[in-house]
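Lay summary

Proteins are chains of building blocks that fold into shapes. Our project writes down both the chain and a compact code for its shape. Here are two examples, one after the other.
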Amino acid sequence: MTAQPSRHDHYPRADTARRTRLGAAAASLEARWRAEDMQPGGLIAAIEAAADASPDEAIAALAPWLADTGWLTDRLDMALALIAADPFARVPMRVVGGGEAAGGLILAERGPIRLTLQIQPAHFAAPTKALFIPGRSAVRILGDGGARVRFHHVSLTPGEAAGTFIAAAASRCHSDPPRAVAADEVWTLDTAQTAFTLSDAHRDVLLLELAVQPPSPLPVRSYDIASGQLVRAASARRDSSFRQMALTLLRSFGRTDAGPLFAAETRSEDFAARWSAMREFVALDPAAAHPHLASMAARDPHPEVRRAAAATLALYPPAKADPCPA
């Protein structure tokens, strides 16, 4: 079977002069945007000024960047001009997501604050899960696509918000009836307790999202919309998430020499990160993981992590049992 041609097959690898021009054009545009953003009144300057504010205060301080999107139109026009000059030009914006799912461009990011232009393709399948992420967000609909929105809600006790979240005791998710999306409407959400899903679009949906997601002891939670049941909890800390992805990659490569990295993460402050690291460690090297798993089953401060570790420990053959480390 003959491989289908790709546009990458035409990339001017041998044309040094052209590639130099491409790099210079992208670098010039990136430098221009960076200089504009760092000036007083610029986007990054505004974000940095709000860095130490509470999530609600940061959303309020940065709301003008959602209300007046002339700056965004100008930036996209410059990006399109770069591509028009050469289709292999690299626009200096970070891409997130994509494919058949929602994707977009990161327009600015500093610390816990991120501004993203997102597109949800037309005729996307209706979501079956609702995701709750600790923090706040403001979402402006730039193109409604004829979509319908459904808001989902979960309750949190003060103890859960402070870090004592127990999956078995989690409140159920309940959902509002779907309604039509209106262009230019703005949703300001406590994303730890309110999520939204879009469906039934016959055109692409375009939205601008300002999210403030500081490190939180409360995990990211995914709920099944139909039943309202919690289906997954994961670390809400971005640094923990990056380490989890790295450990998954090391495990997939069979890097048993990286065992100390897995062991260290099983002692993370974040209970979801501890258990994720332990699962990967057991899959990578059961013998090396065993003493750490035994310690977790006996001493982990989170009751569900202790139970999960004990249940996993019971799967080990008795002959392979090692003494529990002190």
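And here is the second example, written the same way.
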Amino acid sequence: MIFESQSSHDESRDEAERARRRAMTASLLVSFLMLVGKLTAASLTGSTAILSDAAESVIHLFATGFAGFSLWYASTPPDVEHPYGHGKVAYFASAVEGALILAAAVGIGWMAVQDLVTGADLRQLDVGLYLIGGLTAVNFALGKYLVRVGRRTNSLVLVSNGEHVLTDMWTSLGVIVGVGLVWGTGIRWLDPAVGLLVAANIVWTATGLLRRSVYGLMDEADWEASSALLDELGTAVEEGLIASFHQVRHRTSGDQVWIEYHLMFPGDMPIHEAHARSHEVEDRVDALFPDEDVHVTAHLEPRRHDEAHPDEHREPTDPLREVLR
């Protein structure tokens, strides 16, 4: 039964990995299509708003390529130099993508200001609108697909890439509205004004990606996960499965959760009994994270914890101790 369960778990992970690769391949192909299409529309129309949308797509293509590399690297198994695996690269990829988007926003804002001052030279706006409209529909479908697959497979890289695609889609919608107004009214300054709005929207997305990356790289704990973990260990104490616990820590790296804790048992309990109870607790903890690959490290101690250690023993800081009081 244990072997069947492990085999099923491995198959599930393999299927998730295949889904991630399919999604990233689609993202790369569509990113190239977006770039070619938007550059063509910008060349035909002379629109700053459309050119700013194309500039964002240039950044997105580079970011998607880096995200593809990160997705592959994060899936490689642990090695001697990286015993915890390579999942942290997902946060680094998200940070790079956020920084690139931010750089695009600065460039877009600069072009828009220049056109506000000098005036825009616009032409063939109807053709440009048709092109951007079709590309926007494709981007909407791709973005939703990437976010859905990323959340289902616990891939921050795909979720970040999908949110970037959806930002690109909203950017394109704003461009369509702005250029459509210019086409219908003849008010040319609306075109660079829309470019400035596009830049502001991109800045908002970029800061969100950067903030998420910092949280992940700093191992910020998810409070819901902390609460669920402490509740489960507390239940084990109430049932008499363990005497007490402390030194609880956990962190997430991609689709992997690493958990550490110290479990206390009666001093006269045989080690094989304490070990069996520890495994039961581990199974319960593992069930709290059904979609993640959980790694638990348990340290077993006697209930009279302080007396069991030598006088010079120094207990490390217990970050969640205050939560238990």
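What can we say about the second shape? The beta strands are 244-253, 256-265, 293-302.
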